[in-house]
């Protein structure tokens, strides 16, 4: 997608090209994956403690119950904050990784090899977690909310801010960082190795 936005130019992709690529891929990913995101969040949140009967017995059961008892459109509940989250993640990952790698290689701190890719991916994972955490927390709260609990996504965010303060937007930061950092390391290191082999 980066190549598509910089087609016909011999120079490396600009910051604008990278951001555009992140916006496009993030938007497509959310539209396709939102129903699965809703089911995942609902399944993770249901309680099995103290004999409380879970709402869903499994993945397919959750799809069916959500679509039939609430509505088919409920499977796309929280699309706005998830879109915001994915756009932030995609743009931050791509831009931070490229900038960090460029800085390390151009300043001759590290060669363009696995240690450089690993460090760049870790930095990208940290920056991504920091910027995406508020949208991630709001998305999870909104998807898990009871029908009518929050009239809108901004109302959910404002309720969190007024009742719990700004730190509420960074709940679960460490597990989120571990997840995103490990994803970035696997994705970028494998990508760089594949690119080297194929090109």
TrEMBL record:
Main localization of the protein described in the UniProt heading: mitochondrion
Record's bilayer topology term: Multi-pass membrane protein
Protein keywords: Membrane, Mitochondrion, Mitochondrion inner membrane, Repeat, Transmembrane, Transmembrane helix, Transport
SUPFAM superfamilies: Mitochondrial carrier (SSF103506)
Positions of Solcar repeats: 13-103, 112-197
A Pfam short name: Mito_carr
GO CC terms in record: mitochondrial inner membrane
InterPro entries on file: MCP, MCP_dom_sf, MCP_transmembrane, Mito_Metabolite_Transporter
Tagged with keyword NAD: no
Compartment(s): Mitochondrion inner membrane
One biological process term in Gene Ontology: transmembrane transport
Gene3D superfamilies from the UniProt entry: Mitochondrial carrier domain (1.50.40.10)
Family per record: Belongs to the mitochondrial carrier (TC 2.A.29) family.
Stored PANTHER family: MITOCHONDRIAL DICARBOXYLATE CARRIER-RELATED
Protein name (database record): Uncoupling protein 1
Organism: Cricetus cricetus (Black-bellied hamster)
């Amino acid at each position: 997608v980066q190549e598509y936005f910089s087609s016909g130019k011999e120079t490396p992709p600009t910051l604008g090209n990278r951001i555009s690529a992140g916006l496009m891929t993030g938007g497509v990913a959310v539209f396709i994956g939102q129903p699965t995101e809703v089911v995942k969040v609902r399944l993770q949140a249901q309680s099995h403690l103290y004999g409380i009967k879970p709402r869903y017995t499994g993945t397919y059961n959750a799809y069916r119950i959500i679509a039939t008892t609430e509505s088919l459109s409920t499977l796309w509940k929280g699309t706005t904050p998830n879109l915001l989250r994915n756009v932030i993640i995609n743009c931050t990952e791509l831009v931070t990784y490229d900038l960090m790698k460029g800085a390390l290689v151009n300043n001759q701190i590290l060669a363009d090899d696995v240690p450089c890719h690993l460090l760049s991916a870790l930095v990208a994972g940290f920056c991504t977690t920091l910027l995406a955490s508020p949208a991630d927390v709001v998305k999870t709260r909104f998807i898990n909310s009871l029908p009518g609990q929050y009239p809108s996504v901004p109302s959910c965010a404002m309720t969190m801010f007024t009742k719990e303060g700004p730190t509420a937007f960074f709940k679960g930061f460490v597990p989120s960082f571990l997840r995103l950092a490990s994803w970035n390391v696997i994705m970028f290191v494998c990508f760089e190795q594949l690119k080297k082999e194929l090109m």
